[in-house]
Structure formats: C-alpha cells, structure tokens
Specification:
526 residues, disordered C terminus, elongated, disordered N terminus, three-stranded antiparallel sheet, alpha+beta
Length: 526
C-alpha cells in the first residue's frame, strides 16, 4: 500500500500551521488585520465570540417543528484561492463605501501576504500557492470576509430562507423553519455554489452544539448550557505546578464564570458547577479554594456577565517584566516602596509617572525544553574538509580524520575547517617523523599562510618548517596539515591560544617550534 501511494504521488492530508512571528510579512499582516477588524461587525451573520452568540439567540422565537442546524466549512483557510479571496475582499469593502485608495492599499497588501507565505520544513523551503496558512495575523478576518461575500451571494438566490443564520468564521448556526427535505436541498445547493468551499452539516429537532454551547429547545425559546466534548479529560493545570497562586485561583474562577454565563437555567448551572468543582479537586485544588470561587460567582448576575463591556483604555504604565519565582514578590514590593522616593524629584515624577506594572513571564518548562518548532538537524561531522577546488594544492596535504595526534602528549578533534578558513590555528606535521609538529596561527585565509610556508620550503629559507622539509631525507609529500581553533575575538586571544597549544604539545622541545623567543611578549602564562 505504501509503494502504491508513492507511485501515485498521494499528498498526505494536513494543513500548514505556520507561525509568522518575525516573518517578512508579519508587520503588514498586523496592519491589514487592524484595518479589517473595524468592518467585521457590519457583516449580518457576524458572531464575535460565545457571549455575542448568546446575546443574539436569546431573543429568537421558534416554531414547534423547526430544525436546529450547524454547518462547518472543510479546511476553510487553505481552500480559498488567492485571486478569489482578494476579489471578495474588494467587493466587500466597495459595498461599505470604503475610499478607493484604502481599498487598493488593503487588497494589495493582502495579495502580497498571501503570495509570499514561505516556510521551511526539513531543510527545504516551500511557498503556499493556495489559501492562507493558519498563523498569519490577518488570516481569520480575511477568511471571515470571504465567507461573508460567499454566503450573501448564495442566500440572495435561495427561495427558502433560514429564520436565523449566524456564523463564527467557518462555523454556522441556523434555525431552519422548513422541512428536512428542504434542508437537504439547501445543503446540497450551498456545496455547489462554490467548488472550493464545502460544508458538513448536523441537524436536530431537540438540541445541537455550537462553539462551546449546547443549544436546546425550551418551548418557543432556546436554552443553553456548556457543551463538553466526549473526549474532554478536564486536564486543567495541576495545582502543584510551579505557577503563581493567583493564576491557579483565576483558572477556577474564570471557568465557573464561563459556566454561569453560558447556562441559562440556574438549576443546571448548580449541577454543572458541582461536577466542575469535583474535577478541580481531583487535580489537587483545595476544596476551600473551589468553594470560595463558587461563592464569588454566585454573587454575580448572569445578565451582567452577558453585558459586553468595552476594553479599558491602553495603560501607559512602565512594565516591569520578571521571570516567575516565589521570591520575586519581595523585590516588586520593595520597588513600589522606593518609587515614592523617585517621585520626590519633579522631573522624574513627570517622566516616570505611576509605579511600574509588574508582569511575570513563564520560566522554562518541560515542553519548552523538549519540544522544538523544527526538525532536529543532523550533527555536523567533525574534521577538516577538503575544498575540492580543481587547482587546490592544499587538499592533498589536509588531514581529515576526526581525531588527530599532533604530538605524543596531545590529541585534538578539529572542526570542519577548510582551506579558506581564517582566524585559525593550524598544525603542520611530518608523516615520516611521528610526533614532530609545528603550531602556528593566522588572521588571513589559511590558503595564503600555507603558500608562504610552501614558498619558504622551496626557496630553502632559514625557518623551522623550511629547514625540516628541505632536508634531503624529506619532501613536500611528507607534509601534513590540520586546521583547528577559530572564532577568536582579537589577535591577542589567538596568539595566547597558539602559545597554550605549543606548550601542551611540547612542540618547542620535540617539534618544529624551536623555542618561544619569537613569542617573548606572551611568555608569562595566564
């Protein structure tokens, strides 16, 4: 079966989820997202979040035989063709009377983002040719607008209309006041309307779930409760985890608030809250902590929780960011106390303003230490590498073993340097005289330094290396070289490293480094 699949070039199922952090298009994507977010509420079917959905369905009236329906788009993000998506965006903005200059700017930026979505996987680079990756900032709002144009065009052509049609990006909620046969025809027509976008559908006359809400009939109104997936294992943060206490307290409180906001029947909320509390207790949370959170939630009215409040204005306080640790509290409290002394200076008081806003970043955990966002790259093999240039004369002399014995007292593991490496140490050895070596250093490419040595040998100059290899018993064929060291910050660091290796190898006694006189400024060891 595997061979057959390969022969047919079967593409494995999946969708790219690519982080756009620090990517080429990230700033542009943020700009497009910010611009388009202001237009989303003007979509008739738009659902912002669960709270918005609850507010929109609480006034819905039902007929006795109506159907509750949900639809889901199959892989919406990756199935939107670039040209169709940009055209839909332009159509949407034109209907809202957005100035033409703004439309041109937004659509051209969107097109650039879509057509420059590169990512790297397993050492290869890919360009997404269709759809947008889940990860770029503007993807949700772009997909939302594309669906708005598509559904408006389709619904305008339908003879039978739903009594309520709401959508959260690719999830659709419908109240269908007609027959099941008509619903099936509606679903089929919707799938044929655009060959790129296909829908799955579920329907019921009693109850159905949408987002995290279980919606059911209650006479001619709708009742709601929290929808829990059958596979939910309630693996909330363990109480013994290394997190601030207020984080653990807020998890219990926020979950109970969510339950109360969603659940329309107070009795159902009481039952669900008890079950939720039991799950937290099993995760190690003290019963007293859970009861205190439930007491606080019971003091709140559901109507107030459904009241969407605008976000507070941006806080201009200076952030004081620290990595979480139990002892940080003492440091923060001291900082706040000392801030009053800073404010005694009129200028500093005006510049710095209020005390800093303390924020804590998460310390490294097992997941961040063990999970990587890219496949591990194979380790680079050690040892010098031949450059394999056609006219290179050095490669014939280069020692490529991963471990090199440069003297009786010293073995080294050279990195993957080549003839063109610079700012390195090197060792010249004689194949006829084991243990006899010369340690040197160079700031230029090793190729140039080697040619100097070769020239001195051929011209019989009075240097240690030339004297050894110009001896009648030796020749250039006996010369072997190994490049090691590297990355030195200065010439002084490199010369100190050279001196240390000369001493460790004892090459000034048994090798070609005859003495240390030429290194006289560095004869006192650090």
């Amino acid at each position: 079966m595997i061979k057959e699949a390969r022969d047919k070039h079967v593409i494995p199922p999946g969708r790219p989820i690519v982080s756009s952090v620090d990517s080429l298009t990230e700033p542009m994507s943020k700009t497009v997202d910010k611009k388009l977010q202001t237009y989303l509420p003007k979509i008739k079917s738009y659902v912002k979040d669960t709270t918005d959905f609850l507010n929109k369905i609480k006034s819905a009236t039902l007929s006795s035989d109506c159907l509750l329906v949900t639809m889901d788009v199959k892989s919406l993000y990756t199935n939107i063709p670039h040209d169709h998506g940009v055209d839909a965006l332009r159509t949407f903005l034109t209907k809202l009377d957005v100035p033409n200059n703004d439309i041109d700017d937004i659509t051209s930026m969107t097109e650039f983002i879509l057509k420059h979505n590169y990512f790297e996987f397993d050492g290869k680079h890919y360009l997404q040719r269709k759809g947008t990756a889940m990860g770029t900032k503007m993807a949700p709002v772009y997909a939302n607008i594309y669906m708005a144009v598509l559904e408006e065009d389709f619904l305008s052509k339908c003879t039978l209309q739903p009594s309520m049609y709401l959508r959260y990006i690719d999830d659709i909620f419908i109240i269908w006041p007609h027959s099941e046969k008509d619903l099936a025809a509606f679903h089929e027509a919707f799938n044929k309307h655009n060959r790129h976008i296909q829908f799955t559908m579920e329907s019921s006359r009693e109850e159905i779930h949408f987002l995290d809400v279980n919606v059911s009939k209650n006479g001619n109104l709708l009742s709601t409760s929290v929808y829990v997936k059958p596979t939910d294992s309630f693996t909330y943060l363990d109480y013994n985890s290394f997190h601030p206490l207020h984080t653990k307290q807020s998890i219990v409180y926020s979950q109970l608030v969510r339950y109360k906001r969603i659940t329309s029947d107070p009795k159902v909320f009481e039952e669900d809250a008890v079950r939720l509390g039991e799950h937290f207790v099993r995760r190690g949370y003290p019963v007293r902590l859970v009861n205190n959170a439930l007491k606080r939630v019971n003091e709140k009215r559901r109507e107030d929780l459904l009241d969407s409040k605008p976000k507070d204005e941006r806080n201009d306080r200076i952030p004081l960011v620290t990595t979480f640790h139990p002892q940080v509290k003492k440091f923060v409290s001291t900082t706040k106390k000392e801030w009053t002394n800073i404010q005694l200076d009129p200028r500093l008081s005006t510049i710095l303003g209020e005390p800093p806003l303390h924020s804590q970043r998460q310390p490294p955990n097992l997941r961040s230490l063990l999970v990587q966002s890219e496949l591990p790259k194979p380790a680079t093999p050690k040892g010098n590498k031949r450059c394999d240039k056609p006219r290179c004369q050095i490669c014939n002399h280069l020692v490529t073993e991963t471990v090199v014995q440069i003297s009786p007292s010293l073995r080294i593991k050279p990195p993957d340097h080549t003839c063109d490496s610079s700012n390195v140490l090197y060792c010249i050895m004689c194949s006829k005289c084991p243990g006899v070596s010369y340690i040197g250093e160079t700031s230029t490419k090793f190729r140039m330094r080697f040619n100097n040595h070769k020239s001195s040998i051929l011209k019989h100059k009075d240097t240690p290396v030339a004297n050894h290899f110009s001896d009648p018993r030796h020749s250039m064929k006996d010369l072997k070289v190994c490049i090691f060291g590297g990355g030195y910050k200065s010439a002084e660091d490199r010369k100190w490293a050279e001196l240390r290796f000369i001493v460790r190898s004892r090459s000034f006694e048994t090798g070609m480094n005859k003495d240390l006189s030429w290194l006289s400024p560095y004869t006192f060891f650090r």
